[in-house]
Amino acid sequence: MPSLPNIVLILADNLGWGELGCYGGGMLRGAPTPRIDALAAQGMRFLNFNVESDCVPTRAALMTGRQAIRTGAFQSMPAGLPQGLTRWEITLAQLLSGRGYATGHFGKWHLGDVEGRLPTDRGFDEWYGIPRTSNEAQHTTALGYDPIRTPLPYIMEGVAGSPSRNVELFDLDSRRTIDRELVDRTASFMQRQTAAGKPFFAYMPITQVHFPTICHPDFVGHTGHGEMADSLAEMDHNVGLILDAVDRLGIANDTLFLFGSDNGPEFRTPWRGTAGYWRSTYHTSRLIE
Question: Mean pLDDT throughout 67-78?
């Protein structure tokens, strides 16, 4: 029986079709994306990945292979309101776990924010990230914010079989650094599983370029074209770090590497994205193998 391939799936947030160089963006968006462009040239580009215009339903469809309306997760909801996949849905992580894969989630979940609906309840062995969405990083600095009415947002972590816990307040400072932390934790997960000789599914749904589109301190001013472009450059760099980790571990020939986005471009000023330098009447994303 052939060995099972490792799977690395990186999912960007609100990344428009026209942002990357391999789709006509890159330098024209103020930020070359050489690592993702090289990945596209080396592998396969999928040009018709049709999705919803909201984070939750696209992630639900990705995790279940079903129309989001069937899963109970078809719209983004504020903290404190019932949300998430129905408990009887079978996720990609559960299927792969059943085949002997180690499964790790590092990033934005947005498919349930209470015990019983978090990643480690849905097939992942471990997770680190945010249960909902990046705009919550603005809560603590918002005029009139009341933590009694809307809970403080936290970065969380957990392992299967134990309750998840709050790790760090998710505010504008930690919003800048979280994607680099996701890279480090994903690389560590891949290294541990490779050393153990176990196939792995590393799911890294990064937070860029969802608003507030502010980048890691190392990338502030990197492009000279504002924080949207700086964030694109950071995202490309982070994808490159994971590619480098795969090469360093000597598992490139045994690993399926995919990069995609959850829906169309960020539309909020001053971080407005683009669906390409042509008019598009529908939201499109893509996967690159």
Answer: 83
Predicted confidence at residue 287, as pLDDT, reads: 39
| Total number of domains constituting the chain | 1
Res 50: pLDDT: 76
Domain span at residue 74 reads 6-268
- Mean predicted lDDT score pLDDT of the chain: 90
What phi and psi, each to the nearest 5 degrees, are found at residue 6?
A: -70, 155
Residue 236 lies in a domain: yes
Q: Is residue 277 in a domain?
A: no
What's the whole-number mean pLDDT along residues 22-48? Answer: 92
* Residues designated as active site: 55, 110
Q: Is the pLDDT of residue 249 over 90?
A: yes
- How far, in Å, CA of 280 to CA of 169, rounded? 38
CA-to-CA distance for 89 and 149, rounded, in angstroms? 31
Judge whether 284 lies within some domain.
no
**Proportion of the chain in helix, strand, coil states, percent, rounded to 5:** 35, 15, 50
Q: In this structure, is residue 183 part of a structural domain?
A: yes
CATH number for position 10: 3.40.720.10
- Cis omega (within 30 of 0) for bond into 212: yes
